[in-house]
Structures are given as C-alpha cells and as structure tokens.
Request: fold
Amino acid sequence: MPQMAPISWLSLFLLFSMIFIMFNVMNYFIYLPSTPKSKNMKKISTNSMNWKW
Reply:
C-alpha cells in the first residue's frame, strides 16, 4: 500500500487550514447585525457632574 510523502501531508494541512481561515473570515465580515429601528428611541441621558473643587 503506497504511503504519502510528508510534504504531501503538509500541503494538505496548509490547504485545509487556509480554506478554514478564509471561511471564518468571510463569515465574520459578511454578517450584518440587525439594528433596532424604532421611531421612539430614547436618548441616553448623561448626567454631567460639575465638581466644585
């Protein structure tokens, strides 16, 4: 039974690793989270604190 050379295993590992990395990168950058679109959006009130030093 013929055996594969080590360089062959290395090239297969690199090929599948690159495919896996590209798949994850594409999924990360294609995903668009849905933003809530309501007309009555409440503004976040910020209390400014004036310190009397």
Observations:
- The first helix runs from residue 6 to 30.
